[in-house]
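Annotated sample (chain length 75).
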Amino acid sequence: AVVYQNDALFPWLTVRDNVGFALRMRGVSRAERDARADELLAKVRLADAGSKSIWELSGGMRQRVGLARALAAEP
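Output written by the structure step:
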């Protein structure tokens, strides 16, 4: 998995949907994606940010979302 220096997040998706994107591409159900995304967001200390838009986050928070997204892909 790759985490870019400049965030490469999808601005039209919520934080939770960005983290669960790789799982969505694999056909994982919405409930499972959301549960896994919430688990990973808690690990990167963004448990309360799941429903936020990307533009509402600071740069450091965006980097942590990118990290959670990379971990969701189970590299």
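Annotation: Helices lie at 15-19, 21-25, 30-43, 59-72.
Annotation: Residues 30-43 form the longest helix (14 residues).
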